[in-house]
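Lesson 9: reading folded outputs for more than one chain in a single document. The general rule is that every protein is listed as its sequence immediately followed by its structure tokens, and records are never interleaved. Here is the first one.
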Amino acid sequence: MKLLTLNFLTCAIKSCKSSPASFPLHPRDATLEIIESDLNLAFLRNILPRLMWSELCTITRELGLPALPETVPTGEDMVEKKEGEEEVASQTAKDLHRVLLETGIREGGLVCGNCGHEYKVLEGVGNFLLPGHLV
């Protein structure tokens, strides 16, 4: 499960829907994996406005990953320089790509900050089905 996914997940329990503590889900006993992929500057520029930046920074701190900048990078922060028609990615872009698109949770759990319910992650797939008594 890519870390980017955590920026769009919240607790599914009905009583948590109105609580701001139900987002983000916090990783617990997470085993991380890195799957390298090609850097896509256009995608990074497009996803930046959609990210909940402070929550993403919280998740990276909880996982012990390198710190992200305090403020959301701009599109200009993604490019170090242009060589002719080709843009060269900045270190900020490379770090953000590494965190969002190459780092994933292989095993562990995701815990709601409101109710404490833990969603298991096995083989990189989160199980978000709730037991009958929590639906």
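And here is the second record, again sequence then tokens.
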Amino acid sequence: MRSIPNTYIFSLALADLLVIVTCVPFTSVLYTVEKYPWDEVVCKLSEFVMDVSIGVSVFTLTALSVERYTAIVNPLKKFQTRPVTVLCALIIWIIAVVFALPSAIFSRIVNSPIEKENVTIPTCDPYPAYENYAKYAVVIRAVIYYILPLIIIAIFYILMAIHLHASTKEIPGESCRGQGIAQAKARKHVARMVLIFVLLFFICFLPNHVYRLWYHLNPNSGADYNAWWHYLKMIGFCLSFLNSCVNPIALYCVSSVFRAYFNHYLFCFKDPEWRRQNYSMSRGETRIDSTI
């Protein structure tokens, strides 16, 4: 199971676990209580960890799309080694932490006024009181964490699809048997699995980015705020955390090998795939790709 794609998937799982353990218990109460019940340390920590998790997720998914392209097209085969992959994963975490530092520095407890009521309630605000800082911040976040990665991933998947389509036409029928066709199917399967992760990420974070951009770029957002935008805000809030929980479910559905390991370790059930995997390993055989 210690393959190059699985190294990135492990890093993705750590980011998901981090946000579930450190953010969800504190942030999930925001829509169930009237005011922010935690102190400024929790405010800074939750915002920082959430940004780290988002950064690691989107940068890892981008790296996975690049890795799948290189695995299928093989222009950079010498860089497809486990040490290089581990180094890339560490660099991704470092970049995500650096990009999340403003949230750790500027997040604070503020007293926000309630429209049509002469009261204020404490809330956790990730933006400082500088003029236009929030506007620039949400735009930069949308570009770095959403739009730019989506463009990069789309480019590599389009190139991947073009290469696969061309290679299918070039390969004669007789040569499509044996190791070659098995390897091609394995790589296509992992590419589809990564694509599912990417689609889940961008679907889960789309409402959140749409709401934030509208709220901070629309000068009349306070007056235009209505039930529809409130529902979109709550949906985006919930989906952003749901993304940290849905990846294992997707992995269980699309990967027979991961499903075999899930069944064994979670349900103490040894299915035929599990037995076949361990039989192959005991004989010293290696799989083309261990995420099939």
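What the second record shows: The domain at 4-193 is CATH 1.20.1070.10 (Rhopdopsin 7-helix transmembrane proteins).
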